[in-house]
Amino acid sequence: MKKFKLPPYPYDLLKPHSEIGERHPGGLIDLSVGTPCDSPPQAVVNMLSNSKTERSYPKSTGSEEYLNACKAWLTRRLDVKSEYAKNISGCIGTKEFVASVPNDLRLKSPEKDTVLYPAISYPSYAMGAELAGCRAVPVPVNDDYKLDLSKVDQEDVKRALLLWINSPCNPTGVLEDIKSLVEWGRNNDVPIFSDECYVEFIWGQKPSTILHHGNEGVVAVHSLSKRSNLAGIRAGFYAGDTDIVHWLSEVRKHSGKMIPGPVQAAAALAWGDDAHVDHQREIYKSRLTVLTDLFQKLGFSVNVPQGAFYLWAEKGGLNCWDIISELATQFGVLVSPGDFFGSNCAENVRIAAVQPESVITLLKDRVNAHLP
Ligand SMILES: Cc1ncc(COP(=O)(O)O)c(C=O)c1O
Hints:
single chain; 372 residues; alpha/beta; Aspartate Aminotransferase, domain 1; Aspartate Aminotransferase, domain 2; seven-stranded mixed β-sheet; 13 helices; 13 strands; binds pyridoxal-5'-phosphate
């Protein structure tokens, strides 16, 4: 086996720029990582110390209470038929799931060695493929940032273990036409894993899940991290195809992957509550408007997202690292470079709407002080 070449962790590369930002009076304004800054529901946080689940090992697939809460959420919020929500299992947040699916699935289908993923996407799809010793093959996107599966080489299709899709997409905010992707997957015998962690932050349309199209050959992946501002407790789930969900949950059971008991108890409460999400959606909507306006004033061309809470922006063909250096030096603000999300994104930056109003006002003041 070839030695794995360990790349630097992307966000570690931003450290010199965050240090420059920190020197500004008032400190760094961090719009780089998509980590929520708002409060989760207090009842959920309280449950972490009141569940009395600490002593025994938690169920790897998820407690009945946890899974029932996830299923109820799928039917209540996403209008998924209960028959398509019945194969379901918990994961420890979703990054670990994304990063380990290729390895776990390849144990089932060793003849397949290729992971297809969107050419502009969350970096863990490609990293999961590499960690499993698979080929990570990006699927081109069209001018609207939607997947163009007609551009995938037939040899790659034959060798594909799975295709990742992400709608709404991090970083572009685009919504995919999920139905046509499902048809492609079924026609080509490629399982589709649909990462839907931003599904409740869609602007102006009803949420759409892959489970609206049945569960055969598809898996939907969900997380509480963004939905409920609970990235710190690590709770998610996946649901869909009978064989795939069963296989993955058995492999994960053998590898000792389990959501801690107190987290499952607290997370069940979070999946059961919608009011805090509706409130949060309005906050993101308003922050995205303010940030769009602000970055346009700075000369950026900004892609208004259909969902999720990021702005995908560019500025007159400048390289993303030059933009980052300029923003950190002039305004003490940190954003993510486009090349974290794809090899053709060197002219883009991603701006995450993850700071409270007081901090965004500070940024506005710095920008206004600078503009003529
Ligand atoms: C598209 C996408 N998928 C998955 C994740 C992972 O989230 P978590 O591991 O917190 O569930 C993120 C986090 O930023 C994301 O943007």
